[in-house]
Write a structure and sequence with these properties.
Length: about 150
């Protein structure tokens, strides 16, 4: 009986230590999203022309006390091309992430760009929204000199 009690007490201590270790890690980056402020997280293009690239700009500011690095920016489709600076962003400084969208199909769209930073393993989601207008074929044939 003493062996079982000792075993259960040891198991309790191990699980208590594991929970405290997880809490300590979580506390080391308190609410990572609060350490970054964004000019916007949803960029509304409105109407854009089909097959004409349009670029959105998202400005982020490091509100924390440590340098921040954008480690990766991933697109969710082949029609979006992200661009960013991977240099450290010092506290109080800003950086811009650009996302260029080139629509092949007409109609409404919502695209997502995932931003990874040194603050968290979870990405910050930035959205591109708008409506792609079909190119007017009559306007293209009426003005051949401007092509």
């Amino acid at each position: 009986m003493k062996t079982i009690s000792t075993f259960l007490f040891g198991l309790f201590l191990l699980s208590f230590g594991a929970v405290n270790a997880q809490n300590a890690v979580a506390a080391s980056v308190p609410n990572a999203e609060a350490l970054i402020s964004w000019s916007t997280e949803i960029y509304e293009f409105g109407s854009i022309e089909q097959n004409v690239p349009a670029t959105a700009e998202f400005v982020l500011t490091n509100e924390g006390k440590q340098p921040l690095i954008i480690t990766d920016v991933k697109k969710t489709c082949g029609c979006t091309v992200p661009a960013y600076n991977d240099e450290p962003i010092m506290p109080g400084e800003s950086s811009t992430i650009k996302a260029t969208y080139n629509a092949k199909k007409a109609g409404p769209f919502t695209k997502t760009v995932k931003v990874y930073t040194t603050l968290s393993d979870q990405p910050i989601l930035l959205k591109l929204k708008g409506n792609v207008e079909k190119k007017d074929e009559a306007a293209v044939t009426a003005e051949p000199d401007k092509l």
